[in-house]
Amino acid sequence: MASIRINDEPAFVLHSIPYKETSLILDVFTRQYGRMALIAKGAKRPHSTLRPVLQRFQPLLVSWSGKSELRTLTKSEWVGGTPALVGDALLCGFYLNELLVKFLAREDEHEKLYDHYTHTISALSNLEFESKGLEEILRPFELTLLQQTGYAAALDHCVESNSTPISGEQYVYQPERGVRPAQGDDPGHWPVLSGRSLLAIAAGDFSAVETLSESKQLMRFLLGLHLQDQVLTTRQILIDLKKI
């Protein structure tokens, strides 16, 4: 396999671990190449040009080369313009990163999800100026992640009637199938949603209290269904703090 060189790719650092005495191994989320593993040689040295820019939740342009699974970072440039996450917003940022690490395979392209991640980080970084709360910011990202990775069916389509849900009717989300009318003998752990909420969620409108509450149940169900025994550490902290 020939060595590949990529220049100035939009990216965010999701996670980093020390490597030997002076280097870092980075898990980055890029727009065109998905999650990439990059080694940042010498990044821990005091005068390294990489050291000050390799920060989480900051938009970067990164360049790399190599042909193995672990490529070599050759340049990283801070794009700027995003205030640092603090407090609850910072914890939510770690939650987003943990979701991406658990759901995305390496080098699997997700441009739409990358754009949504960028938008969500921007909203969290400007939380004090946002009209939306944390839940209204997080729910659309969770839904986009699940749908882009193939773990959630369309919510504005009833699989039994092959039609749009009716606003005043009740529906369940059946695993492996999708949305269908609720029945009396449905398992109790399947999330029940009104047709009104399903249509609102599908349209990205989480402003109604009922929609926000029912979307929380749906997201918890779908995330738990596909993570199975894996624990989302940051999510549990947020739940304990009753932030989401």
Low-confidence runs? none
Spatial shape: elongated
N- to C-terminal distance: 46 Å
Largest β-sheet summary:
5 strands, mixed, barrel
CATH architecture grouping of the largest domain: Up-down Bundle
SS content category: alpha+beta
User: Can you give the mean pLDDT?
Assistant: 92
Radius of gyration: 20 Å
Strands of the largest sheet, in order across it? 1-2-3-5-4
Number of domains: 2
Provide the CATH superfamily of the largest domain.
Recombination protein O, C-terminal domain
**SSE order in H/E notation?**
EEEEEHHHEEEHHH
Query: How many strand units?
Result: 8
Q: Can you count the helices?
A: 6
CATH topology of the largest domain: de novo design (two linked rop proteins)
Estimate the helix proportion, in percent.
Answer: 25-40%
Beta-strand content bin: 15-25%
Supply the CATH class of the largest domain: Mainly Alpha
Structural features, described:
Belongs to the RecO family. Residues 9-80 form the DNA replication/recombination mediator RecO N-terminal domain. This is DNA repair protein RecO. With 244 residues, the protein is α+β, with helices and mostly antiparallel strands. The protein has two domains: 5-78, OB fold (Dihydrolipoamide Acetyltransferase, E2P), CATH 2.40.50.140; 87-242, Up-down Bundle (de novo design (two linked rop proteins)), CATH 1.20.1440. It has helices at 87-103, 111-125, 134-148, 195-202, 209-227, 233-240; strands spanning 4-19, 23-30, 34-40, 60-66, 70-78, 170-174, 178-181, 192-194. The strands form two sheets. It has a five-stranded mixed barrel. Strands 7-6-8 form a three-stranded antiparallel beta sheet. Helix 4 crosses helix 5 (209-227). It is elongated and about 65 Å long. The N and C termini lie far apart (46 Å). The model has no long low-confidence stretch (mean pLDDT 92).
